[in-house]
């Protein structure tokens, strides 16, 4: 059951929740099950708990186990469905903060004594970024080539049957052929996701955004995810779904970066013994930022936009040297893709394809200053249409979470969407009489049911790939499309794109959004000469471009990066000012009604994402209210049996523990604070049997090095599979050599905004709360902060406090 509430900005004693619903009132620590302390809610692994049977009895439905979740039996995960008032305890945090223990200092001292060591480490970072850019471009080129081959083959087959069955009652034959091919392609994509790797569904941008924010999403950067994403998006796009291949490139680049930077593959159990120094969450996340930027650069030919995308939507922690390396990876990605596609097109070294989609330059006059108010109005419309799109998709997502959770039903749903898409497209093309004469400079014209020498404008929109349709709306001459054709296409594609996003197929959101906006934008551009017959106006393609930008901005609510991406994709800086204003307006208007679509899907999956700033009106909330209490601690010299007992206890799935002096428990404080140690470190110590009858801190012989911790990263051994004898349980481990002796701490009187900024800016995983005598009284983790959210209810504002689900 989800609990939470609104806090008003009053004194602690006078705070009264503004919501009257008992479900959203905060519970005291005494009311929370003792089998799961608040600390356990903050940093836990997936496990069953004693409350499972109680939730079964409450008759709650089961959450769909796909996309963001490990593939498990649905009967093991009962939760409330479709709520955004919940945080999931299954998501762990990444360790961005380095543990400066004795082993770390020893290694840094060796590097400091050898200048070559630091230079080699710095050079290795640039080499990895080069490999990331190159491999991302190769994946992008492979996807593009495969889609062109499959789409070309499909068009050839359908066209051949159209020619032979254009008259008579056999017109259903080409329709059935078209339907069969698309349903086959889409079913392949859906099977790869549902049965292969569920996290490969969608664009992957929400998952990567969470990862770069510091949340460990299961399976998000594994090689199997890349394979399913790569071939799945190929068949999804070739199958005619309202999806794009550009969004999944961001996810693909991130997976490549995560794999290359580690110098090994845990999936294939191959270790190449290179880049071992970078086997940590800190280094890995920096490289994933570069992979995401390289994916944007490969998708749109926008290296600067890629850097800004990684900064705006992804990485929480930034520095100048990282910016240079990410820009380098983006440039390498764009250049390599350009070269590869030039060879594929039979024009070696003709570098005219910087990205998977290039909108092409707009020729002639761009726009007039008196048209800017119309463009601003289009920005408002983009925000409204984007809010409607997000609202419909949100409700569809809730329906999927409730009823479409099995693998089989996910595949069937995708096939139904493919069937409906083909049927609508065929009917629109067949019933349309919008045939136009073919001009000499026209590309990708489709005759379909038109006479010789004519092309079907409806087919140019419905039957082409989405990327070609976008370019047609941008650059086709005035009068190429009738008002009826644009209106029908805009409505149909808007609804199909809304239905399609969230299917169990890899699917990008960028191109469907751009295509929908380009349709209604060109519709406005077509109507403008009739509204202002005396005015000199820009071409309908310019209006289509600004409509596309407004629609995309209204759906995803990105500003800086999208502006630069679209400018780079058109190679035209003249469009920058109205483009920027449109993006800002679309975001402002859309934010009035709901969040961006990526944020909505993140909230639906109950991910503890930390925003850029702490929630307003939270200054009066103190660390004692935020922290987890009681706390599980270890002594500096601890018995092996107790460590093993704590780590194996399913009720204590904590991932970090304060290390303290010996103390007498009193239920309020937990000893003098000396440092912190992670669960993963303890498991490595137990695995390597780093214990003795009575260890000596000054013993120079330590049977484990920092390489042992890196070699087990990121899949540490299961604690239940370690063999520890009864005699060894009586041995002792000196944790002082392995713990972090100088972690960040806060006073019990620290405010929530201060804790939030410290936690987010430094990428912390645990923040120990101490009293005036340096005694541990609590611990703060990501979920303890993410559960405070600013909200409005019936015109009132306050702080909403979410509860944490353990299923």
From TrEMBL:
Which keywords fit this entry according to its UniProt record?
CBS domain, Chloride, Ion transport, Membrane, Repeat, Transmembrane, Transmembrane helix, Transport
Which molecular-function annotations from GO does this UniProt entry contain? chloride channel activity
* Keyword Transmembrane attributed: yes
Quote the cellular component terms of the Gene Ontology held in the record: lysosomal membrane
| Disordered: annotated span | 1-57
The UniProt entry, under Pfam families, shows: CBS, Voltage_CLC
State which residue ranges cross the membrane.
Answer: 123-151, 171-195, 287-310, 322-344, 364-389, 410-432, 481-502, 509-532, 544-566, 573-590
Question: What compartments host this protein?
Answer: Membrane
Where in the numbering of this chain does the CBS domain appear? 739-797
| Residue stretches of biased makeup (Basic and acidic residues) | 10-34
Q: How does it sit in the membrane?
A: Multi-pass membrane protein
- Keyword Transmembrane listed: yes
Q: What is its main location?
A: membrane
* Protein family: Belongs to the chloride channel (TC 2.A.49) family.
Q: Which PANTHER family match?
A: CHLORIDE CHANNEL PROTEIN CLC FAMILY MEMBER, H(+)_CL(-) EXCHANGE TRANSPORTER 7
Protein name according to UniProt: Chloride channel protein
What species was this sequence derived from?
A: Patiria miniata (Bat star)
